[in-house]
């Protein structure tokens, strides 16, 4: 009789066929853990944990100290994801997980998972970790050489974040952070920051370029491009012609680096003629397209005969005249 009781007791201690087959190990729930975090820890789906633990309710919280059966079968191995960094965001009035996700260009479920949220409810003042992929950032971030970038001054408004500002200007938020030497991702309403924008993109988007059609250069000769307009090397005394009809708004030699200079105002833009041996027009004169307005002189400090020619918007932005040059 005693032997029979011992056998029955021993059998009762063995795991059932179902549990023996499905439980790889048992996990003891720790404070702050959720079904998602446990499933993720063992590379499983939440449904896998629920099937192995029939008494669990997906809608209810786990209890600290609760034992969970971890089944053998898990998710198929996935490719190693790129390292993830986190941006800290402080929840503002009216925010929701989906709106915050949209601000940062991420999935709201990733934010929920990164912060181990048990529901979609968030609170004003709550700090959230926003996951950002290092690999993605490395692809979009770019280091620009001097002269390749234009800095736009921007004053921070309510609801702004580095990511949102970067999205407005089509740049990477890390470049804004670096340009302003920010130690954190936190910015304040009213703060004035510099936004680095590639020069070419800036010119395309922010400079209202006038319609210009230059049929010819002011003088024939060898053309050399510079950071401001072009130098045209020709014989001293050659005639300098206006590229379009307009009104002379300057004729003088007040700027030593430009020597004798003539500035003509056209419909929507300015043309500048410098290094002249002689100016043949005065301020206020109306000139016709092709009219002689000066003579080629010496380029200061070089001893060579040349004309410096520029085209600018009326706001003073320098344009490359060769981009508007048609057939002679």
Q: Return the average pLDDT rounded to an integer.
A: 78
- Tell me the CATH topology of the largest domain: Glucose Permease (Domain IIA)
Order of helices and strands: HHEHHEEHHEHEHHEHEEEEEEEEEE
CATH architecture annotation name of the largest domain? Distorted Sandwich
CATH superfamily of the largest domain: Glucose Permease (Domain IIA)
Number of helices: 10
Number of domains: 4
| Overall 3D shape | rod-shaped
What's the Cα radius of gyration?
36 Å
> Can you tell me the CATH class of the largest domain?
Mainly Beta
Helical content stands at 10-25%
Secondary structure topology:
Elements: H1 2-13, H2 17-22, E1 23-28, H3 35-41, H4 46-52, E2 67-71, E3 84-90, H5 97-104, H6 108-114, E4 127-133, H7 134-140, E5 149-155, H8 162-169, H9 173-179, E6 192-198, H10 199-206, E7 222-225, E8 230-233, E9 239-241, E10 246-252, E11 260-265, E12 269-279, E13 286-287, E14 292-298, E15 305-313, E16 318-319
Antiparallel strand pairs: 1-2, 3-4, 5-6, 7-8, 8-15, 9-14, 10-11, 10-13, 11-12, 12-14, 12-15, 14-15, 15-16
Helix pairs in contact: 5-6, 8-9
Overall description:
- It is a single chain.
- This protein is of the alpha+beta class and 328 residues long.
- The chain folds into four domains: 19-77, Membrane-bound Lytic Murein Transglycosylase D, Chain A; 84-138, Roll (Membrane-bound Lytic Murein Transglycosylase D, Chain A); 145-206, Membrane-bound Lytic Murein Transglycosylase D, Chain A (Roll); 222-324, Glucose Permease (Domain IIA) (Distorted Sandwich).
- The chain is built from ten helices and 16 strands.
- It has helices spanning 2-13, 17-22, 35-41, 46-52, 97-104, 108-114, 134-140, 162-169, 173-179, 199-206; strands at 23-28, 67-71, 84-90, 127-133, 149-155, 192-198, 222-225, 230-233, 239-241, 246-252, 260-265, 269-279, 286-287, 292-298, 305-313, 318-319.
- The strands form four sheets. Strands 7, 8, 9, 10, 11, 12, 13, 14, 15 and 16 form a ten-stranded antiparallel beta sheet that branches. Strands 1-2 form a two-stranded antiparallel sheet. It has a two-stranded antiparallel sheet with strand order 3-4.
């Amino acid at each position: 009789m005693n032997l029979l009781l011992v056998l029955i007791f021993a059998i009762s201690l063995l795991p059932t066929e179902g549990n023996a087959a499905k439980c790889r190990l048992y996990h003891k729930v720790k404070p702050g853990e959720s079904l998602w975090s446990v499933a993720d820890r063992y590379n499983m789906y939440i449904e896998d944990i629920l099937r192995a633990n029939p008494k669990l309710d997906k809608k209810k919280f786990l209890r600290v100290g609760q034992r969970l059966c971890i089944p053998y079968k898990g998710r198929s191995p996935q490719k190693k994801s790129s390292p993830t960094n986190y941006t800290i965001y402080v929840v503002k009035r009216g925010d929701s997980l989906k709106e915050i996700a949209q601000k940062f260009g991420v999935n709201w479920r990733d934010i929920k998972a990164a912060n181990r949220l048990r529901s979609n409810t968030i609170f004003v003042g709550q700090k959230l970790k926003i996951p950002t992929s290092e690999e993605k950032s490395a692809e979009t971030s770019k280091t620009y050489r001097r002269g390749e970038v234009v800095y736009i001054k921007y004053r921070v408004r309510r609801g702004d974040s580095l990511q949102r500002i970067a999205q407005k200007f089509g740049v990477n938020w890390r470049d804004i952070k670096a340009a302003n030497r920010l130690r954190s991702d936190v910015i304040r309403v009213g703060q004035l920051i510099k936004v680095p924008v590639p020069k070419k993109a800036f010119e395309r988007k922010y400079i209202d370029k006038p319609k210009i059609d230059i049929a010819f250069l002011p003088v024939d000769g060898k053309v050399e491009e510079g950071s401001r307009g072009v130098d045209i090397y020709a014989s001293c005394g050659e005639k300098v012609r206006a590229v379009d009809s307009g009104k002379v708004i300057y004729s003088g030699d007040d700027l030593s680096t430009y020597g004798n200079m003539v500035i003509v105002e056209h419909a929507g833009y300015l043309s500048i003629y410098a290094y002249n041996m002689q100016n043949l027009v005065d301020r206020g004169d109306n000139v016709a397209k092709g009219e002689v307005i000066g003579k080629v002189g010496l380029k200061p400090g070089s001893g060579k005969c040349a004309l410096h020619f520029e085209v600018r918007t009326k706001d003073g932005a320098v344009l490359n005249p060769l981009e508007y040059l048609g057939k002679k």
